[in-house]
Amino acid sequence: MNRMKLLAVLTLMLAGCANTTPVKTEPPVLKFDYHTQANAPENGKIIAITSYQFLTNNAPRTKQPDAGLLNFKLASDVVQFSAVTNYHENYELQLQTAMQSALAEMISKRGFTVTGPFKSSEEIPYTDKKHLYLIILPRLNLDIEQRPTTKSCIHSICTDKGVITLGGSLLLRFIEPLSEQTLLTKRIDLTEPGISKNYIHQYPQVTRKAVMQGLMYSDNELNSLIDDADKQLVDALNEFYRAAMTKTDALISAKELLSHQDDLDQIRGFKRR
């Protein structure tokens, strides 16, 4: 039997070992829907926004190449929950898009015309930069931590209980478009108050021995498995998003941004000489 056929047989055996006990879970719902209450009159000035630079404290779990037939991903690898991996695979882009949209709305509702997002300030054509008032460079540092408090496997059912915490900081740099000189910096602490969610994740234990021997275990060991880990992660992200946008909204002032007109004129006058 060649390698591919043997792998197929083992996969079918693994499927036969799968526990069919229903999983009690509540679908997570993203609530990235912040809207500013600001409503200033138009001032005729244009502000460009670059894409959020997203930095995280750790990278998603990488998929290592198989080192051999028995190193292919078993169910025990697949069902274990990783908050960091789930975030990067399912929610990072949506969070970035929502924060980008909310920031653009905040600037627009303060009377500015918004253009972008651009990948970077270098992407903006020079002819366009000459007509811009400011460029905003946003950067988010997001810390995601998953701390298991209890992890055990009894009668082929594994239970992982723990805490997911979110924190970080947001940096907004307002720069002069041609010289890229920084005129204003806003730093927003997102570690206080801390965001913490308790989770429980239960899943069937599948070992190589069970796969090779075709071992079965009872579906009646538990009436249902409990899994709210993904929902708790999403609830934490919803809370983080609202806190980040609320603090950002409170720190952006049309009056303060417009007060830099003299500084901009001085910088641009210096560049023309």
Give the key terms.
273 residues, alpha/beta, Double Stranded RNA Binding Domain, seven-stranded mixed β-sheet, two-stranded parallel ribbon, 28% strand, elongated
Describe the structure.
This protein has 273 residues and is an alpha/beta fold. It is built from eight helices and nine strands. It has helices at residues 3-17, 75-79, 83-108, 126-129, 208-213, 229-251, 254-258, 261-272; strands spanning 23-24, 46-50, 53-56, 113-118, 134-154, 157-175, 182-189, 195-204, 225-226. Strands 2, 3, 4, 5, 6, 7 and 8 form a seven-stranded mixed β-sheet that branches. A hairpin with a 6-residue loop joins strand 6 (157-175) and strand 7 (182-189). Helix 3 (83-108) packs parallel to helix 6 (229-251). The chain is elongated and about 75 Å long.
CATH topology title: Double Stranded RNA Binding Domain
Contiguous uncertain segments of 5+ residues: 7-19, 62-78, 213-220
What is the structural class? Answer: alpha/beta
Topology order in helix (H) and strand (E) letters: HEEEHHEHEEEEHEHHH
CATH class: Alpha Beta
Residue share in helices?
Answer: 25-40%
In angstroms, what is the radius of gyration? 25 Å
Q: Note the beta-strand portion.
A: 25-35%
Number of structurally distinct domains: 1
Q: What is the CATH H-level superfamily?
A: Putative neuraminyllactose-binding hemagglutinin homolog like domain
Mean pLDDT, to the nearest integer, reads 82
Known CATH architecture? 2-Layer Sandwich
Shape: elongated
State the separation between the terminal residues, measured CA to CA. 80 Å
Report the biggest beta sheet as strand number plus sense, adding barrel if it closes. Answer: 7 strands, mixed
Number of strands: 9
Helical stretch count? Answer: 8
